[in-house]
Specification:
Structural class: alpha/beta
Low-confidence stretches: none
Strand order of the largest sheet: 3-2-1-4-5-6
Shape: globular
Mean pLDDT: 95
Order of helices and strands: EHHHHHHEHEHEHEE
Number of strands: 6
Distance between the termini: 11 Å
Number of helices: 9
Largest sheet: 6 strands, parallel
Helix content: 40-55%
Length: 237
C-alpha cells in the first residue's frame, strides 16, 4: 500500500482463524445445546429477541421450540449467515469459552501482527458475521491469552449490516470516525472485499491454503498469504 492506514478491520473465519475450527468444533458445540438454551432461557432478552427474529424470518409467529431448533440446525447445515442464528451461537460459545470448554484458534502470523499494528498506533476492529458476543469471546479466550484490549470496536450483521453490502462499510466508517480511504479491510471473500472497496475503503484479500475460498482467489484485489505480507499499517509503518 502506498500510504499508511489508520485502522484495520478484520474478518475472522478464513482470515485470522481457521474456518475448519468453526465448522468442526464450534458448530457442533452449539448444535448440541440449542434445545436446552431455548427450553431454559427463552425469557432472557437476547434469547427472546433472537427467537422472535427466527419466527419473523419464517413468517411463523407461533413456531414452537422444536420447530425453531430444526430451523437453526438447517441453517447451520447451510452455513447461513442469519443474525438470530449467530446471536444464539454467540450466547453458547461465550459461555463455552468462559468455562474453558473452548479455546479459540488464530493462525500463527496473526497475533504478532495485531500486536505490532496496535503498537504502531493503528486501531483494530472486528467485522464478522458471528455476533459481537461471539467475537468478544473469541478474542478473549485465545491460546495466547485475552486479546480484547487490542480491539477498539466490534461489528456484526446486526449493528453494521450484511457483509457484502457497501452500506455496511459506510456505517462502520461513520461509527469509527475514520475516513474510508484510511480504513483497511482484510477478508478471504471477494464479495466482502468488493463491498468494502465500493464504500471507499482499501481492501486486501487473505488467501490461506485449505480455506474454502482459497481456490476462488481474490480477483483484482491485492493479495496476502499471511499477515506478514501486509505493510503500511499505523504511524510506525
Amino acid at each position: 500500500m502506498s500510504r499508511a492506514v489508520d485502522a484495520v478491520v478484520l474478518d475472522i473465519e478464513g482470515t485470522t482463524s481457521s474456518t475448519g475450527f468453526v465448522v468442526d468444533v464450534l458448530y457442533p458445540y452449539a448444535r448440541e445445546r440449542f434445545a436446552a438454551l431455548i427450553a431454559e432461557r427463552s425469557g432472557e432478552p437476547e434469547v427472546a429477541r433472537a427467537l422472535d427474529q427466527v419466527r419473523a424470518e419464517l413468517d411463523e409467529p407461533d413456531a414452537d421450540p422444536a420447530r425453531i431448533v430444526r430451523v437453526l440446525n438447517a441453517w447451520l447445515d447451510e452455513d447461513r449467515k442469519a443474525t438470530p442464528l449467530k446471536t444464539l451461537q454467540g450466547v453458547l460459545w461465550a459461555e463455552g469459552f468462559a468455562r474453558g470448554e473452548l479455546v479459540s484458534h488464530f493462525y500463527a502470523d496473526v497475533v504478532p501482527a495485531l500486536r505490532r499494528w496496535h503498537a504502531a498506533g493503528a486501531a483494530l476492529y472486528v467485522y464478522s458475521s458471528g455476533s459481537v458476543a461471539a467475537q468478544r469471546a473469541w478474542f478473549g479466550h485465545s491460546a495466547e491469552g485475552d486479546l480484547r484490549a487490542l480491539v477498539s470496536g466490534w461489528y456484526d450483521t446486526e449493528n453494521a449490516g450484511p457483509k457484502q453490502e457497501p452500506g455496511s462499510f459506510r456505517t462502520i466508517a461513520a461509527d469509527t470516525g475514520i475516513s474510508p480511504d484510511r480504513l483497511l479491510f482484510l477478508s478471504d471473500r471477494v464479495g466482502e472485499l468488493d463491498a468494502a472497496r465500493a464504500a471507499g475503503w482499501r481492501a486486501v484479500g487473505v488467501r490461506r491454503p485449505g480455506e474454502p475460498y482459497y481456490e476462488q482467489g481474490v480477483q483484482d484485489h491485492p493479495e496476502a498469504g499471511t499477515f506478514e505480507d501486509i505493510s503500511g499499517v499505523g504511524s510506525g509503518a
